[in-house]
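Worked example 2:
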Amino acid sequence: MEKSQKNINIRKTVEHSIAGGKDFHFYVDELAPDNTMPTYKGEADEKYVYKEMDDEFFDFLERKSNENGIFIRLVFSKTIRKDGSTLHELTIADALEEFKADGQYDEGIPEFVDYGIKVQNGEVTFGASINHDDRQFRFYEFGSAEEEFLSPDNPLNRRIVEIMEGMIK
């Protein structure tokens, strides 16, 4: 999928992504040069302790977005396989949407996926955060060869991109 240049307002996008969602846990992380999320392995180069969404927190996010980038989760997907069909429950801030898969792309989709955006130097890339080996989360963009289920032809991914485009401020 294409990257899109946007005049993204990180603060408004983050605030909008969690607005009204009491059960939708806030999720944003800095990225390393290889798109891993160093916080999970205790390897972050700068220890920032999140206390609240204050000016200091957003200054940290802006600074990191101009380095290796940040990941902002916008959609959480839970895959439910039942009676030979697949349903995806998409949690979007204060809403829940169900998406029925067509079967072609069902294989290989993890049970839980964090879909979101990588923001680096004002450029927005759509994709997902995926855990491949014990606590090693990495951002993969849609269309990356590493994960077949992230194909831009997957109807689920097209729907998720539509949702995320509406959440970017």
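The chain has three helices and eight strands. The chain has a mean pLDDT of 83.
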